[in-house]
Amino acid sequence: MTWWPFIASQWAWLFLLLVPLVIFYFLKLKRPRLDIPSLALWRSVLNDQRVNSPFQRFKRNLLLLLQILLLLCLVLAAMQPFYPSGADRAKYLPVLIDTSASMAAVDTEGKSRLDEAKQEVRRLIDNLLPDQRLCLISVASSARQMTDFTDNQRVLRDALEQLQVSQVGSRLEDALRMTQALARTVPIETAVLYTDGNVPPDIDFELPFQLNYQKLELAGRNIGITALNARRSGERWDVFVRIEGTKSPPGVEELPFSAAVVLLSNGNELGNELISLTPGQSQRIVFPVETEGARRLEVRLKPQGFDSLETDNVAWLDLPAGRPLAVYCPVELESFRHALGGLKDVLLYPSDEGEAKAASYDLVISDRKTDIDLDAETFLFVGVLPDDLTKLVRIDESVAQVIDWQRNTPLLQHVLLTDVQIADRPVSAEGVRDRDYEELGYEILVQGRTGPLVLRKDGGGRALYYMLFHTDRSTLPFRVGFPILVSNAVQIAQQQAGLLEIVGRQTGVLPPQHLQPEKEYDVVAPDKNVSRVRSAVDGTLSGVGAPVIGRYSIRDGNTELASIGVSLLTVGETSLATVDQLQFRELKVGAAAAMLKSDRPLWPWFAGVGFVLLLVEWWYFQKRPGGLLVR
Amino acid sequence: MDLLNTQARFTSLLENDVLARLERMRLLPRRRLTNRSRGEHHAAKGGTSTEFADYRDYVPGDDVRNVDWNIFARLERPYVKLYRHEEEMHVVSIVDGSSSMQFEGKFERAKQLAAAFGLMGLMNVERVSVFSCNHVGKEPVFLPPCTGRISRKRLFDFLEKIEGGGDFPVEQAVEAVLRRHRGRGIVVLLSDFLTFGDLERPLNRLFSAGLEVFAVQILCPSEINPEVTGDIRLVDCESGRSVDVSSAGDLLGIYEEHRLALEEELGILCRQRSGRFLSISSRDPLDWVLFDLLRRKGWVR
Questions:
Q1: Residue A58, pLDDT score
Q2: Distance between CA B199 and CA A282 in Å, rounded?
Q3: Residue numbers in B near A43 (CB within 8 A)
Q4: For residue A484, what are the contacts with CB-CB under 8 A and spacing of at least 6?
């Protein structure tokens, strides 16, 4: 707290103007002279005034007093005083405003948390002192700098008004890193975070400045959809909908939530269920849906009673048409073909009936490096060394042994590789470590004594599995785990092709789409905003932002190539749970006990008082006399 | 036409029609202060004029010619008939000619009133004299006593020629006049009475000199309703002294009270000495003052 609440103290020299003011006043340079017939009456009037008026001296010099007061007010206004808030003043203050989905939650008066935050920030802007600079940063799943550090209140207010809720979860790291980057250009001691407290409590960030955690008041209770997925079960889909409600405040017992859950398929109602949910609990509802044909599912939650957040009351899920899995496996890989033959819903190419090829496959199992050109999403190469690994590893013709493997990876679940004999021995080059494989995008699934045996790589929307040894030169096909491994590969392919399980898409970023390479496409958002996005060299269209719930349409001209429904589906946002402490790497930051107080500039008041004094002086001395007898 | 009218005016002070109306008016003094010389004014004591006044019991030594024999024949008691005595009254006008009267027509109005009162005196066969006081230490300019209709021209010429300006306070002016004046009657004091001196003494002296005071205070509009505001330096036109007034607009209420108090005080001083007091504005219409106000106040008939 400063004891000298003036910003422009250098203007204090203007107080010296009091000296000439007083001198000029007493010199009476401008006192007009008026000849009158006689002073007799005026003498008696003045004598009477001196006797009867206790303030006659004051009144006599009232003009001087008013002028002194006026000058004092103007000088004080020029010195720009402020009312100290008691808190340390920050010259550069970044203001982080949470705009995640939960900030749209309204209280019983219909006021959203973002409106509340805007009100607080507006107060900061209104009380901005001339030597202070604010920078507004919008915080959702990513950060967006709304303004530079500025003292322009109009710019700040405009930026504040433009803030809108992003229907995504909140993540503070991005905004804090942005603030850290700003701190390299200007000295930042403190940053202010306005949030409803619905943020992840653990933040992977090392705070280089103080964070003033301003937690807004709680909104009302809420119920919403937190998960929506579908799992293939024979000839039908089981659609799972998870509904969650907020917890009751401590010491308060609230009534259970009541809501209706409606499932729509292509606009037609497929199911309708009424639920009653205890606050803080969740409930899962299953709707069976036939697999025939592709379906666009929409789940609507209709709460009965107050519901503070609307965006979590609807979710979308796109179910593909049910079909068998297309698997390409050359006839030379008899062991794999044999294992595949025993699996349901698998269409094997080349088929035994002679059908050689299909236009595209879901799974390619091959020992030929060139088969990577086939149109598929999942590949399992056997005895193939990728070209980019030739410098890291070589294959020797000697016996290799499995040292360890990732038992939880989908391909190797329930597969026991102990004592498998392998005639091909991958040997890592001198000095090559696991990190070198990871840098090339490979994940080692099975580790041999001298080098990796099985690797996984994701790229271009494809899942590539490389077995660096050939199964025909190993005892693996003779193990119980081999058909399990093949079955796992099929499940991975089914998962990849969306034939096994479909998960509702969350807001944030649209899932990658495989389209024509290096071509521009229009992405039409639910709010009808159209953005033009160019696909990558491999045809992948990725990184398309989806901050709003609803259906996004990817178009090539007038042709709709894909329609993707994205929903909030975030437990954290729906639960409106708040955290009182943010745990950073080394320290904890607790929510402030009171809203941030800002220094209040007082110069407008002094200027206003000066103006009023000026008016009073003008009125008092220039008013026409009244109330006298006129003959 | 205007030129003809101007040339035809008997005096520049008063219009001809005003003169004509004034000639038919008479002064109404409260006291019958007359001189020995015979005139047309009824004396307070009995006289030998033809106008009957009263009866009284006959006492030895009375002139038997004054006994009313008709009454004696009826009542068998002698009664003496009393008659009114008509004596001459002096009408003195003292015109304050100091500089304070030079504002907004005050001096002109004083000369007009002096002319009016003088004319009424002349037409009533009174002795009329006029004094104009200007500078301290100098003798007042004065019109010697004159009487009769024939003296009208002399009166008007005198009043037209006197000039204003000077620093003669009214109380000293009265003293100076009384040093020269002899005779009882009416004194018409025409001044603004804005003086630092004491007015009680000159009024006492006028009373003891047998003069009934007709005091007329003539103020200008800027004295009655001054329009002054803010900080101002007021300068006395006679003495040249000044006084600084701050927030003068605030003092106007007190000023008004003091002006009315001065009027009240002057009125009391005059009434205590069987005199009369009247305060008028120099902007008041002359007709209204002469033919309405003075009549209503009972100064003239």
A1: 60
A2: 109
A3: 196, 243
A4: A413, A414, A415
